[in-house]
Amino acid sequence: MDIRTKLVFTLVVVALVSMFVLSLAMYAIAEPALRDSRLDLLEALAESKRDDMEQVFAGWVDRVRLVASRTQLRVSLREHDRTGNPETVDHIHRILTDAVDAVDVIEALAVFDAEHHLVTSAGREMDLAGREELLQLDSVAEGIGYRGISPTGEGDLRVGFVARLSLEGEALGDLHVRLNAQPLLDLAEDRAGMEQDGSGEIVIVTLDENGVPRALHRLHPGGPEFWEPVQLRGEGDPISIALSGEEARFSEGLTDDRGHEVWAATRYLPEAGLALIVKVDKDEARAPFTQFRRQSLRLALSLGALAILVGTVLGFRFSKPIKDLADVADRIRGGALSARAVEAGEDEVGLLSRTFNDMADEMEEQVSLLREFKRYFDLSRDMLCIAATDGYFKRVNPAFQRTLGWTTDELVSQSFLTFVHPDDLKKTEREIARLAKGLPVISFENRYRTKGGEYRHFMWTAHPDEASGLIYAIARDVTELERVWEEKEEETRYLRRRLKEAEAKLRGTS
Q1: Can you list the domains of the chain with their CATH numbers?
Q2: Which sign does the torsion angle of CA 249, 253, 254, 260 carry?
Q3: Which of 501, 495, 431 is nearest to 463 (CA)?
Q4: Nearest-angstrom CA–CA distance, 211 and 376
Q5: Is 0.90 topped by the overall pTM?
Q6: Span 353-362, pLDDT tens digits
Q7: How many alpha carbons lie under 13 Å from residue 465 in its C-beta half-sphere?
């Protein structure tokens, strides 16, 4: 067997074994990435839904605060407490009715006086807690208590709040508020971000007044209906985990109420006592892994065949010149920028060598220019910077730190407008607007605050780059020139006064 046959045989065996090992390695490397990607998706969706729940809850609190903060409501309630005038009841009732009509999420309102006697109410009928219960409520905002979520006779959910009513430090009574909880149900029903035909679910659960976990919506066909108790399955139940306040993602050891193994991400909203679970069946979650494994095998077989062909050709014709070219590339990577490949032959390898050398020449020139620019940028006594029209420095040279005392991280981590003198902000913003339109700025002056609290006068020249949206600017510290100018101005004003005084004396003696 000649050397050529041995080389071809060896390349064929190596190519097949390599592709098989490559497919296994690709799967071993990709599986954790795919799992993390799937879990990241669940976690991102859970975080988004938690943010949405926070916005809904904050909106409820804002609406309660809006009604409770009405001065006329508290003034009328104080007059009622003091005089018992029936007209005040009518006035309070009108205020409550207007609020119910104006804010669609508010279903009912009721006002109690300081003795916790009902003054009046508006909207739908509502359960009214006693004074003793209110004293036990947790406060979600100053003067506002959250009463939780409960079902109504109409087959939907309501949210209860109580707000303290006071005026000038005097406790007047309480405002009971009943809100519609439909926004929460809409969040649970919104499956955006999940496969529409898949097993994924978004579950929102809360504890009722007896501590029983209840789903705010139907979980799945055959599962708990609206507001039905949820049967917990112990430590491996994602609902139990979420209700415990743990916020994490899980890919092992979880079983839902159907007995299915699931992957899940949990979130908890403590101020509202709401647990959120975003979950998907384990089989569905792992489906991309199986598909990737099959594709990897097909790819490995295809690449194996191609590798045999390419390897044979390379082995006979290109192995040595390509190795030499790789050695040169490695030397360049190690810092020997002047290294070049031997340009031998007129075939593809020769063309590759010439092209490689041309690229190396250009890279060496660019690196040299970059080093020159960096020296110029770093050593310049003027302040050079690259900024954006969003108000942030992207890069500054050391002259900024020498002049202002701020470090580079401090300068680029916050808007440069925070360093500008308050009296110069408006004109600075006008110049930024000009730059955003592609107009250069010549000889613009403003003041920048140093780390010691003083202000330095800067004279700016700036040119925008419309393609990148960046601003290239040069600033010169003219503080001393300003001081000299002010001294000259003062000297001029003094000489003018003396001249006027001399002229006055001359006129008086003539």
Answers
A1: 69-184 (3.30.450.20), 380-477 (3.30.450.20)
A2: positive
A3: 431
A4: 70
A5: no
A6: 777 777 877 7
A7: 10
